[in-house]
Amino acid sequence: NEVYIKTGGNMSRIFFVLGKSCSGKDTIFRYLKEKKELNLKTVVGYTTRPMRVGEENGKEYFFVDRDELEKLKIEGKIIECRDYDTVYGIWSYFTVDDGQINLGKDNYLYIGTLQSYMEMTKYYGNDVVVPLYIEVETGERLSRAVKREREQSNPKYTELCRRFIADEEDFKEENIRKAGINKRYINGDLDKCISEIVETIRKI
Questions:
Q1: Which of 1, 19, 37, 134 is the most exposed place for a label (fewest CB within 10 A)?
Q2: Per residue in 144-172, pLDDT tens?
């Protein structure tokens, strides 16, 4: 369905942050979330993975079982869903049309994968979902990834390499074109990159 809902004279938007690992997207997402003048609401996702120590249901995620996921699918309330094959079985991460997103009232900020961006665009429409694709030169991104992993108490370099290669496949140029993403925000200088994104959001 096409969504043409106004908020204060402007169409509601979902600003969707995405990019490969170690592109700085998480840092940029946190900055945009905390910048009060942008007044962007965030959405709590759902997952079937077990709750970790220190997590709180409804804060990091809504933690549900697979029966609940299947029920939501039948009800047509799943906006997008990603499945990950882990040593503990399939863990799903997904977004639900549960009233958190009210396009007649607010604008939103979201972070996810290229696939979840495409699914959300299919659900809400190209006019509503605005991609904020963060890009970093490949060598620099690998350098950042190794540096970050080295700082961990138990570095997992094999997993780093797997994730790096997977990102190269997921974000192939043909996939980016297929998703309709034309604008890229180059994160060589974090402050400059953030300023460019903030300016885009203000203009829209």
A1: 1
A2: 999 988 998 888 888 888 889 988 999 99
Question: How far out from the chain centre does Cα 84 lie?
Answer: 16
Percent of the chain scoring above 90 in pLDDT: 74
Q: Tokens in use for 190? A: 């974090």
Q: Alpha-carbon distance 67 to 63, whole Å?
A: 12
Q: How far apart are the first and last CA of the chain?
A: 22
Reported as a pLDDT band with limits 50, 70 and 90, residue 190 is very high
Q: Please state whether beta strands 10-11 and 46-47 pair in parallel, antiparallel, or not at all (unpaired).
A: unpaired
- Please state, in angstroms and rounded to a whole number, the distance separating the CA atoms of residues 29 and 51: 23
**CA-to-CA distance for 136 and 23, rounded, in angstroms?**
6
Number of residues that this document lists for the chain: 204
Q: What is the pLDDT of residues 51-78, one digit of tens each?
A: 888 889 998 899 999 999 999 999 999 9
Q: What's the rounded Cα separation, in Å, for the pair 61 and 117?
A: 18
Helices 157-170 and 138-150 cross at an angle (nearest 10°) of: 150
At 184, which helix (H) or strand (E)? Answer: strand 184-186
